[in-house]
Amino acid sequence: MSRPSLDLWLARVGDGTWRSFGEVARIRVGIKTTADRVFISDRWAQVRPRPEDELLLELITHHDLAPWRIERAADTRVLYPYDTAAPRRVPVNLREFPRAAAYLRRHQPTLAARKYLTESGREWFEIWVPQRPNLWRVPKLVFPDISERPRFALDRSGAVVNGDCYWISLDDLGGGTERAQRLAYLLMGVANSALGLRYYDAVCGNRLYSGRRRWITQYVSRLPLPDPDRTASAEIAALVAELVEGDRAPDEAARLRLDELVDAAFGLGSRGGADADHRQQGAPGERATGLGVTQRDEPVGGERQGQRQPGHDLGDQVGVEVGVPGA
Prior knowledge:
Elements: H1 3-15, E1 19-20, H2 21-24, E2 28-29, H3 36-39, E3 40-41, E4 56-60, E5 68-69, E6 77-79, H4 98-106, H5 108-112, H6 115-118, E7 140-144, E8 146-147, E9 153-155, E10 160-161, E11 165-169, H7 177-191, H8 194-203, E12 213-214, H9 217-220, E13 224-225, H10 231-245, H11 252-265
Parallel strand pairs: 4-10, 5-9
Antiparallel strand pairs: 1-13, 2-11, 3-6, 4-6, 7-9, 7-11, 8-12
């Protein structure tokens, strides 16, 4: 499409925009442990001593995300040494969790070497970026940092989100539980639509290797949102609810219907002008990754632990390496 045509399309979308994603939602990155080999694994059953179940929380990584729903690729869990009822970061008392304490002390040389953490007044066994512990239990939208096409999904499991993903807590959407849920469905509908993808390419345009896109805060916050009180917006929310919570199959018919409704919600009519490159390829519930976590021979992102820069973990890269922790 020529630049004048694209500018006209953007102007029309702008006319139909109520708010941007960033104006209605706080977009957070997932946790960053800076010691993934110690804290993250899909094989905790093989670990001795095995930390207490209370501290081993389910962890969502980019492998688990398809449009609309979480589809766990493996039972990946994070040792999360925090009080999950506290609104702010409150480390647990290790005396109350003797097995976790023994496990962490076994790795104390590695963890205590993170001087940037201890010099900031934190405990040596903490996670560098634990986010808001009390918000994990609240329903949230989750999407990968890097993917070719949008894969915004809803999580109600209470799982922690890894640093290779971003998330939006429904608690931050305001307006009461029912309105927050409808707004979450609308956000997902726009993000997973052809219009959302085309808008991203026109306004953000960050394409990596193999055509992959970065879905980071500064880009996602710019995506447009139509007035949630419009009829078409209500229909988008209803369709997404069927895809997320109900028996509606995320098939070609659902994809086409979604794109029609999103175009209509922005006042573009039933043919908003999205080209074939921006129509969702394949069924909209199809996971974009090929191999599952446990099928990969190499760490995701092509880095081994020894090659990573101090102060960074795989949340800053493409994925998460799993296996027996500390191995």
